[in-house]
Design brief:
There is one protein chain. The protein has about 450 residues and is mainly α. It has a single domain, classed as Up-down Bundle (Outer membrane efflux proteins (OEP)), CATH 1.20.1600.10. It is built from twelve helices and three strands, in the order H-H-H-H-E-E-H-H-H-E-H-H-H-H-H. Strands 1-2-3 form a three-stranded antiparallel β-sheet. Strand 1 and strand 2 form a beta hairpin. The chain is elongated, with a radius of gyration of 37 Å. Belongs to the outer membrane factor (OMF) (TC 1.B.17) family. It comes from Pseudodesulfovibrio mercurii.
């Protein structure tokens, strides 16, 4: 028996290397990338560490809680486990399948009057020899997909952190606007009281009183719009935490630019390789390539070895007595379905070609996102200086018109217009502050994580 097993192994040995001939080496798609960004830019670190860069403990705690509770992230983790299970099944396809059965058979003898009972046991084995690499290619494909799915999960976490931070600052921005609104309403009420008093003394007309009332009504209406926007942001943040709408997870009162993290200049473009979506795209390129190799292997006949051993079977002994005959009897000839296999191969190749195009597009979109975020960062910083000057001037103009009106040398309309100009300037300054904060998050997401320190950038070049 030992001699026959050796003969069987010697028969398979020359064929065992055939699968390697059908494997295609992976070559990354050709792309054009700049040496570094035209604007100032950094290396990636885990998404959960971002908030610490902004010196807000409440924000740091909120992000950590979001990563624990978010439903989308939980679903992404389940997908990772599922892909890992699929990869495990692909490995199982390459190992022998064992089976066993036990049976009894009883019959009564009419002559002897007694019962005869027979017991049987049967053990079976089935194994497909991966001569052409079909099973190993399918295994590789499943493993690449499992790795890509993990990158999808990291991408979900990246997006979740960014969304949480933007909503947190969005609520803070809403509160700042509401504070400005309440202050403007109080100022408008005082102006209305002043004009009504002046009207009673004949120093103001009914037109001016109605202008003041119109101004107050407009501010009150805007205040309700701002309250609704704040509530919607609070609801959106609650849903992120697997909580019902209306639950207040955070309610920051103001925006702060006290400690915006620095962005070092001269970041190399290859830092984009740390983005989860680009990593997933490259891994799926490898997956589609493995699928194509598996489709090529389908043209070759699979070889399945089967046998059983038991009290009622001689199949395994037949296999050992004549292994060559047994092997030939288990061969199938898929190449008889040539047209079907050709079409299946072309479909796999088309999937790979499509993945290459999508990879390039994803890469260039990522480059655009980084370049846009860096450029917008510079523009927002420059705009902040102009808005600060504008607000200072608007407040001074309002003060002058107030003095003139109260002195009787100016009109109420001029004063109200100056108030509107000052309010717009305040809103614009607050909006710019919010935009600068969210721009940092957009840049972090585009880079796949927080920017590195200056010395890290120097080492990366």
């Amino acid at each position: 028996m030992h001699r026959y097993i050796v003969s069987l192994l010697l028969l398979l040995l020359p064929l065992s290397g055939c699968g390697a001939l059908l494997k295609t080496d992976f070559t990354p798609p050709e792309t054009t990338t700049p040496a570094q960004w035209t604007a100032s830019a950094a290396e990636v670190s885990p998404a959960a560490t971002w908030p610490t860069d902004f010196g807000d403990p409440a924000l740091t705690r909120l992000v950590a809680l979001a990563l624990e509770r978010n439903n989308d992230l939980a679903a992404a983790a389940i997908k990772v486990r599922k892909a890992q299970y699929q990869a495990g099944l692909a490995w199982e396809d390459m190992t022998p399948n064992l089976s066993a059965s036990l049976g009894t058979d009883s019959e009564k003898s009419l002559k002897r009057g007694g019962w005869d009972t027979d017991y049987s046991a049967k053990f079976g084995i089935s194994w497909e020899a991966d001569l052409w690499g079909r099973l190993s290619s399918a295994r590789d494909s499943a493993e690449w997909e499992a790795l890509a799915t993990e990158q999808d999960r990291q991408g979900t976490a990246l997006s979740l952190v960014g969304t949480t931070m933007k909503l947190y600052w969005g609520i803070a921005y809403d509160n700042v606007r509401l504070q400005l609104s309440e202050s403007n309403i109080e100022s408008s009420r005082q102006t209305l009281a002043l004009t009504e008093s002046q009207e009673r003394w004949g120093a103001a007309s009914s037109l001016e009183v109605n202008q003041s009332r119109q101004d107050l009504a407009s501010l009150l209406a805007t205040n309700q719009t701002l309250r609704q926007a704040r509530q919607e942001d609070i609801n959106a943040l609650a849903v992120l935490f697997d909580m019902p709408p209306g639950k207040t997870m955070a309610d920051p009162e103001t925006l702060s630019m006290a400690a915006l993290p620095p962005i070092p200049a001269g970041l190399p473009a290859q830092l984009l390789g740390r983005r989860p979506d680009l990593r997933a795209a490259e891994l799926r390129l490898r997956e589609y390539l493995a699928d194509t190799d598996a489709a090529k292997a389908d043209f070759y006949p699979p070889l399945t070895l089967t046998g059983s051993l038991g009290s009622a079977s001689t199949e395994l002994s037949d296999l050992l007595n004549n292994p060559v005959a047994a092997l030939v009897s288990s061969l199938t000839f898929p190449f008889l379905n040539w047209n079907t296999l050709q079409l299946q191969l072309k479909v796999s190749q088309a999937d790979f070609d499509e993945a290459v195009v999508n990879f390039r597009q994803t890469l260039y979109e990522a480059m655009k996102e980084v370049e846009d975020a860096l450029s917008n960062r510079d523009r927002l910083a420059e705009r902040a200086n102009h808005l600060a000057e504008n607000l200072t001037a608007a407040r001074e103009v309002e003060r002058i018109y107030e003095v003139r009106y109260k002195a009787g040398s100016g009109t109420l309309k001029d004063w109200l217009d100056a108030q509107d100009t000052r309010r717009i300037a305040e809103q614009s300054a607050a909006e710019n502050l919010y935009s600068r904060l969210t721009n940092y998050v957009t840049l972090y997401q585009a880079l796949g994580g927080e920017p590195p320190r200056t010395e890290t950038v120097a080492q990366t070049k």
